[in-house]
Each structure stands twice: as C-alpha cells, then as structure tokens.
Amino acid sequence: MKKTLLGAILALSLPVAAQAGELTARAGDGFFGASYEGSLLLMTTSADWLTNDGIGNIGSLGLGVQAPLGIAKLKAGGKLVYMDLKHQDNHYAAALGGGVDIPVGAFTLYGQGYFAPSGLASDGVDHYKEMRAGVRWDMTKMVSLDAGYQYSHMEGKNGNRSVSIADGLYVGAQLNF
Fold first, then answer.
1. pTM above 0.85?
2. Where are the domains of the chain?
3. pLDDT for 63-91, tens place per residue?
4. Burial environment of residue 137 by CB neighbours within 10 A (0 to 12, 13 to 18, 19 or more)
C-alpha cells in the first residue's frame, strides 16, 4: 500500500519537478476557474478548481497521456472529481475523457471533455460531465490570453438536485513555464 501511494505521488510530481507546465485562470458569468497542467514526455498531470458562489465548488486531480498527431496534440486520461455543492451532500466522480490542442500560427485552438456515468460516481449523482473549448493567443512563450466556453454539470438523483457550476463564455490568462 505504501509503495503504491509513494509511486502515485512520484508520478504526479514528475511534471512539476520538470518545470513543464501551464497555470491558467479564467472568469465567466458567475463562475471562476483555475487549472494547472504539467507534462513530462507522454504523461500529463492536472489539477482544476471551479467555483460559482451561488452553487458551490468543484475540484479535480487528473492523470493522462498525450501524443502528437501531426501538428495537433491529443490527450486522454481520467480525473477524480470532488463536488462541494451548496444545500446538498458532497459528491465525487471518476471521469474519463480527453482533449486536443491545435496550434495555428500565434493561436491555439483547444477543446477537452470528461464524463462520469452513475457507476463511477457517488450515490446522489446520475452523471457528471464537463467540457471546455476555446482559442488561446500565445502573446509570448510565457504568457497567453484565452477566450472560450465552459460547461460543468452534475445530474442529480435520489433527491439531489441537478446543478451547472459553469455554463457560458469566459476570458482568461495562462502562464507557461
């Protein structure tokens, strides 16, 4: 057990130690999000936080793989999602999904999506889904500006109400290191 935990911590810390990553903040109508993604060779790690004052917070930790396909970078993996929602029990899910980044000159088109069916979620969750898509302007190698659309939704069951933490356009900034 200790070796497994130590291996997981080491795997998640490798991209951080390699200093290859990006830190992003984005704000939309009623929601705010922050993300970290690190990569080393073909492995990626991620941490996301999304908040909506009237609804609650969602946090996640992810692990995945990435591979180049022509000029595009494809990503696939999973994330553990924790939902701290107002006026109901806290929920969790194990979501699977992926994304793509396509550079076009000084811009990058990107999209990602994750889904967790009821079998990979806590009792009060019928399913969880999230997606984010947009365009990033790479001003310099270190700084980028973002604009896009984000959707994050938990469909409730067993008396738990369904909620959307984010459903709209956003603007943001990214620091690459």
1. yes
2. 2-176
3. 999 999 999 999 999 999 999 999 888 99
4. middle
